[in-house]
Amino acid sequence: MSAGSIIAPACHIFVLEDMATTRAVITHLLTHNLQCRVSAFATPDELWAACADQQPDLFLLDIILEGSVTGIDVCNRLRGNEATRHIPIIFLSVHNQPQTRTEALRSGGVDYVDKPFYPEEFIQRVKGCIERYQHERKLAAQTQEQAALLRVLCHDLRNSVGASMSMLEQVRETMDPLQREEYLDICVRATRSALDLIAHVGEYRSLLDGARPLKMELVDVADACDEALNVIRPMAEAKNITPLLRVEPGLVLRTNRVVLVNSIVVNLLTNALKFSDPGSDIWLEARAEPATPTTPRVCIITLRDEGIGIPDQILQTLLKRQLVVSRPGTSREEGSGIGISLVQLYTERCGGSISLVSQTADPARPDIKSGTTVILRFPQPAPV
Questions:
Q1: Is-above-0.85 flag for pTM?
Q2: Which helix (H) or strand (E) holds 89?
Q3: 302: helix, strand or coil
Q4: With the C-alpha atoms ordered 230, 234, 236, 240, is the resulting torsion angle positive or negative?
Q5: Which of the two ends of the chain, N or C, has the fewest CB atoms closer than 10 A to its terminal CB?
Q6: Per-residue pLDDT for 208 more than 70?
Q7: Least confident span in 49-63, 107-121, 196-210
Q8: Domains by residue range for the chain, with CATH
Q9: Residue 16 pLDDT greater than 50, yes or no
């Protein structure tokens, strides 16, 4: 007997059947004709215990079971559980009355197989059900990936495009030729940064799904920080803040330039500006830390501000994956709430690590200043 092409990748099927002989037959048919793993249970309680630890790709439920609980009752409970509500269910039963079929399908089953069944037909119906389920999961994952990619690009493009728009507004309002030339230069550089982001959509996809490594290159850290400062300049000028830059001469990283500039440093600077009071200070520093017998050479990029700080309840969970924390800035600036989470993702994909410390104002301790320090550590290539 052949069931045609096998399912790929391997799947896991839960079978609920109170007859030992039927359980054995179903398990044999599935494991010998499909690339699958089968867990067979005699009672609903056994099934619930297994569902607490893992979720299968398909449930096969006998309708008539020993005791008062039926397969339809089990289906209703599975559909009411968030973890199992989307997993397909096929019913097995000797009852082929239209009313029973209707009730089973109405409860959430996707198919109904009469007992006794023909092995070939049974295998093909199980195979088709799982293939449809796997295809739906793939489409859902692609949709989530595309949504995440769009969200990331919109977040990062806003900084570069916003800088260009702000400078163009000021160019229109000023008649000073020298100042106009300076502002136009900023517009050109910010627009080029936005175009770089658009051109690197493929790199962003790699960064999000981790399927393949980012394209790396040698990047001058001083040039990267200077480019990032150019992008956030309009926002800095609006708050009367001039970030102080100090980078060790000749510092080079092997990383992705667009990601380092737009998705790491710009995001950190934007956050620091957002939560700093007008006229306060921000420091951006980068230095090399020599190798030791137990540690490699690293580049340390530090961003420090004297802003309002991060409350402890947010600080404790800020670097957890996919956490969205959106707070208005000191001048009521709005944000997406994903800046630090993206910086963490980008930094780790580039082989680095991130840590941060923060202090909010404490009326009882006026001697302690508020502010936040973010520290990035990247492996540094050995000097040539």
A1: no
A2: strand 89-93
A3: strand
A4: positive
A5: C
A6: no
A7: 196-210
A8: 11-117 (3.40.50.2300), 145-379 (3.30.565.10)
A9: yes
